[in-house]
Structures are given as structure tokens and as C-alpha cells.
Amino acid sequence: MNDGKLNIVFLGPPGAGKGTQAVGLSREFNIPHISTGDIFRAEMKAETELGRLARSYIDDGNLVPDDVVIKIIERRLQQEDTRGGYILDGFPRTIPQAEELDKMLRGLGTALSAAIYLEAAEDVIIQRLSGRRVCRQCGAIYHLVNMPPAREGICDKCGGELYQRPDDRPEAIRHRLEEYARKTAGLIQYYQAEGLLRKVDAGIEKEKTYALLRDILNDLK
Ligand code: AP5
């Protein structure tokens, strides 16, 4: 179904650059960037009950249980700003989540436009995750080497403090990659079978990957 909406899913391993790319595309195409990771990090920062539950999984690199994530997305996709489309970043991450998403969208009388797989090799991903720094205040993403801030440890955008996500520690990275291989990578075949899969090279310069993504979104409009 092509109803003129940009209902996009971003697939790809941790560190492929999903968050980095989604921020610019969301602005350019005027559709919300819905990141389940960002939603959980905001809840953890606010020390809510959901945040405490999420932390018990996330910091060690485990996935949060399907029913918890599905409820969050169900609620988010009811909101008015999603009517023209969205970029789902980090959801779905398991086959049951993908099946629930299909069901939800049918219920809303719409469907996905594409599942875009951001591909990057494991050595690239590990280098990116180990050097990533994130602003505690506004969530902006940096890299110590690839995208350093102008002043060390300080966010260029809001002056907030940059920190290393606990799940970017070496042992948590290792575990996240295992979780990805075990539970998430199967979604590539899932969306291929639905005829929705598009692949982009995400192991290259940020601007080059962005241009490939922009072409796909323009094509889908
Ligand atoms: P989430 O925040 O979604 O983590 P992720 O999928 O592991 O993705 P990342 O944020 O690590 O990577 P990214 O691809 O966005 O890369 P980024 O742009 O930052 O989820 C966190 C946790 O929440 C999960 O582990 C899980 O526990 C839980 N969770 C979330 N959703 C869930 C769900 N649906 N079900 C169950 N649990 C769920 O880039 C990485 C680094 O590389 C940055 O430093 C960046 O500056 C740099 N970089 C990016 N692009 C380039 C480039 N082209 N060249 C050079 N450097 C680059």
C-alpha cells in the first residue's frame, strides 16, 4: 500500500548510524523520529518506573521485553504527528514486534512504506560504539574521533555534558551484538519477504549514507 506516507523502519546493528541519520531526515522530511532507545533513556533519566525497568535490561545490553516496547509504540503511533509518516528507529527488534507492528498499522488503515537496512561491518560498528559520546541534556550524538565536539566533553548544540552510554562498555557492546544476531537480524528476511526491504551502505562517510537515504525517501514519496 502506498498511501503517500513515509512510514519507515530503520534496521541495522547497534552503531550503524540509525540515530545519526534519522535526526537529519526527520527534519528534512518533516516526520517524527521515533527512537525506542531515546524513549527509554528519557524514562531512565526521569527515574520513572518504566525507566527503572528498562535500565535493568539496557545497561547490560539485553533487549527490553516485547510487551513493554509494543505498548509504548502502540501509544506513540496514535499521536497526531505520525499521520504523515515517521522513522521508527530501534523498533521492531524481534519478529513478534514486527508482527505486532503490521497488525497495529492494519488497524490504523495504513502500512509500512519501507524497512531500510543500514549495513556496516562489525569492526566499523565496534569502533563507532566505543568512541560514541551522547549529550546528557539534548541527546545529540558525537564520536571522539569521527565526529568530535568543538570543546571536549561539551555539547556543541546546548552546552550539555557529554557522557558514555553504559551499554557502550566493551562487554555490553559484545552482548548487544549477540542479541542483535540472535533476535534482530532475522527481520532482514522478514521484510525481504514482505517486499519492503531497502539496503544502504552505512559503513561509509555520514554524508554519503545520508544522500542514499534521502534518495530512497524521495523515491517513496
Ligand atoms: P538503541 O538506542 O536503539 O540502540 P541501538 O540499536 O543499539 O543503536 P545505537 O543507538 O547503539 O546505534 P545507532 O545505529 O543509532 O548509531 P549512532 O547513530 O548512535 O537501544 C538501546 C537499548 O534499548 C537496546 O539495547 C535495548 O536494550 C533497548 N531497546 C530499544 N528498542 C528496543 C526494542 N524495540 N525492543 C527491545 N529493546 C529495545 O552512531 C553510533 C556512533 O557512530 C556515533 O558515535 C556516531 O557519531 C558515529 N557514526 C554514525 N555514523 C557514522 C559514519 N557514517 N561515519 C563515522 N561515524 C559515524
CATH class of the domain at 6-120 and 184-220: Alpha Beta
* Mean pLDDT value: 96
Structural class: alpha/beta
State the separation between the terminal residues, measured CA to CA.
Answer: 12 Å
Instruction: Count every beta strand, where a strand is a DSSP E run of 2 or more residues.
Output: 8
Named once each, the bound ligands are: BIS(adenosine)-5'-pentaphosphate
General form = globular
Q: What is the CATH third-level topology name of the domain at 6-120 and 184-220?
A: Rossmann fold
The largest β sheet comes out as:
5 strands, parallel
Helix content: 40-55%
Characterise this structure:
- The model has no long low-confidence stretch (mean pLDDT 96).
- The protein has helices at residues 18-29, 36-45, 49-58, 66-76, 95-107, 122-131, 170-184, 187-193, 206-220; strands at 6-11, 33-35, 85-89, 114-119, 132-135, 141-143, 162-163, 197-201.
- The protein is built from 9 helices and 8 strands.
- Strand 5 and strand 6 (141-143) form a beta hairpin.
- The chain has a domain at 6-120 and 184-220: Rossmann fold (3-Layer(aba) Sandwich).
- The chain has 221 residues and is α/β, with parallel strands linked by helices.
- Helix content is 47%, strand content 15%.
- The strands form 2 sheets. A 5-stranded parallel beta sheet has the order 2-3-1-4-8, with helices on both faces. A 3-stranded antiparallel beta sheet has the order 6-5-7.
- BIS(adenosine)-5'-pentaphosphate (AP5) binds at residues 12, 14-20, 35-37, 40, 57-58, 61-64, 69, 90-91, 93, 97, 128, 132, 141-143, 146-147, 167, 176, 205-206, 209.
